[in-house]
Amino acid sequence: MKEIKIESTLYVYDDITDLPEDVSALMLKAAEARKKAYAPYSNFLVGAALLLDNGEVITGSNQENAAYPSGMCAERTAIYYANAKYPDAKMLKMALTAGSATKLTTEPIPPCGACRQAIAEYEIMQEAPIEIYFMGEKGKVVKSNSLADLLPLMFDKSFL
Ligand code: THU
Prior knowledge:
6-stranded mixed β-sheet, about 25% strand, cytidine deaminase activity, 3 helices, metal-binding, alpha+beta, Cytidine Deaminase, domain 2, binds tetrahydrodeoxyuridine
């Protein structure tokens, strides 16, 4: 038996004003999208904004359903639409902001496992990293240089 250590490097910004200008603008678009979330069951609102290399920004928010598992996260709403609309564009940066409708969320909220897997698919397909920035409603912003840093031991097409 041998031990394997897996390391990822993430970067933490004090708040949105600390981000590079293009990223804070992207995060503001994610915040706009968050306000449009349809989340009557969880009251947890998530917004995503995805910058493409053609200059387009695709936004998404979580869309819930009375049949709970039929709902969809903000990240996948945005990323699936982006690839449906612009299949030839590369995805450069994704900004995420999330918060409860009932209390202020100040801790950075990372993308769920299913969304990491979905984003990974496009990162692998385009052979270029997607930067991920995530935050609560206020406070610190965490940056990952690549989705791969958020999903060690990812399952991908090479196993099929
Ligand atoms: N949610 C997202 O939109 N993205 C995530 O990465 C985590 C969770 C949504 C799904 C559901 O509508 C609500 O947040 C509570 O889980």
